Amino acid sequence: MATENESTLHKSGTQDSKESLRRKKTSLYDVLPSLNVTEEQTGRRKTDEYLKLFQHLINQSNDAIFIIDPESAYFIDVNDKACTSLEYSYKELLSMSVMDIQQAFPDIESWRKHVEIVRNDGCMMREGVHKRKNGSVFPVEVSVKHVTHDRINYIIAFSRDISIRKKAQEDLDKYKLLFSQINDLAYICDADGNLTYANDVFEKLTGFKVSDYIGKSFAPLFDDYNLEKAMIEFGKTLNGECTQFELYFKNTGIPCEYNNMPLKDDKQNIIGVVGIARDITERKQAEIALKESEARFKTLTSLAPVGIYLADPEGNCLYVNNAWSEMSGLSLDDAKGKGWIKGIHPQDRGQVMSMWEKMVSSGGNWGHEYRFRHSEGKITWVLGYAKKILNDAGEVSGYVGTNLDITSRKQNEKRALRANQLASIGELAAGVAHEINNPINGIINYAQILENRNDQSSKEWDIACRIIKEGNRIADIVSCLLSFSREIKEEKIPVRVDVLLAMALELVDSQLQKDGIILKLNIPQDMSMVSVQQQQIRQVFLNMISNARYALNRKYAGVSNKKVLKITCEEVLENDAPFIRVIFHDNGTGIPETEVDKIMNPFFSTKPCEHGTGLGLSISDSIISDHGGKINISSEEGMYTEVVVSLPVIERSSPL
Question: Across the chain, what does the average pLDDT equal?
């Protein structure tokens, strides 16, 4: 800055102005107080300390300050900010004029016209461009005032560098241009929730003009429910979170998806929120339509008699209907993902999984027969189909499948196979019956003669008895064979199951006691009646007891308190129809899992050849089926076997 000894007179447009400036040394500290202080203050009656302080404050200003000669446009005095912003020294600037730094004034005449306007108006503010010493330019905002001090005229100019503001404005203009081209609502709010910017989409979504809400709170745009949610999300964003949420505008009812981000200043302080709001009306309508479609789908599938399931492109289960759950014994939650595998019969699981994974990897379709094993032990045969679902791009978006219960068909096929087998056996039996029966009857008759003629203590009598016993055994085997091909015409009569059981147990009671088998009975008296052929049902019961006796004797060679046969009777409802169940439970050797499904086949037996023909269970199953009932067998090898014989009730003696 100028000192008392420095000359403040420089190049001038007129000799008069030079002389006047020489007569009165003038600096910023002389002229600036005249702008807004009293004459008493301009008289330099303040102390030197005040002057130094004032000088320091001027040089600390963020604005460049210039004292300019109105006639010549030369700088009379400048502060430090003027020097640093223009990159000139103090002495260099005092030898320069306004035209050297301000492009708006190409010559002295243009400057003097400007001075005249300022003199008439008293002051002026305008934007311009200053040029630095290196030739670069920067935008400025200049406040100009005409001042008279000691009858000498001056121009005081305050210049502020607005490069950052201009750059910010340019950036904002670019963003505004960009936002004006998009179909989404772009908005900016200050930290108090007042709208500072919004593009033209604002009016379309809210029903209000942008100008009506600039500088105002966004609160009136929402009803109470949506406003509460908006305030919560707004608070999260002011705390630094980027948030995404959905709200409805009150006036239009349009649903929008909002994405808010914190708005920060140069120091990374959060000063507001910037966001995008997208109209999601179509998406909401699609979601509603999808939900309605899903509801109809679930309603239809819940009533469907076939198992229905959905899977994603990776083969993970997403949905199963009630019929599928009933077949597998798994709930929807149990079946999701890869959980459905647990419902597949263990013997079929590996093959099903292999085929399913092959379908998923190839993106093809699938069809296969396999079994479900319910947690309660029920086996269900199904014919499974799966078809790929393609999206609009032709890509696999998932799979839909069905499981048709073919258990009855499988049973019919099994019965047909058995019928063919039985027919073949019947033909064979019929062919050999005459050849076997006549000789065996002759053998038995001759043996009976020998038995009658010999003393019971003789060896001959013993041999005759043995011949009769083995002959009768051969006759029984032939009789069993013939029962496959001959329909026995025995009249069905009403009888209580407990009576039939008592008759069967009378025949084997001594054998059970001899083997050390503990018999536990739970047979209610006066049970409901069943219509049966008594001899056949007794044969079934005897066969079940014989099989249990064999399994117990194999596991426990001698006497054991674990050598137990339990026989239980109960009345139940099956498919709303009354049935009587007779349950034979032994804790003997059990049946291997791989053989449980085969034991009803003719000639299949888990016993050695000398202990059975493999016809007992097959004949029993045919007898019970002919009576409208069924036989279910469950077993665990080495642990137990349980056979449940169900017969339909024709009369009840008491309610269930």
Answer: 81
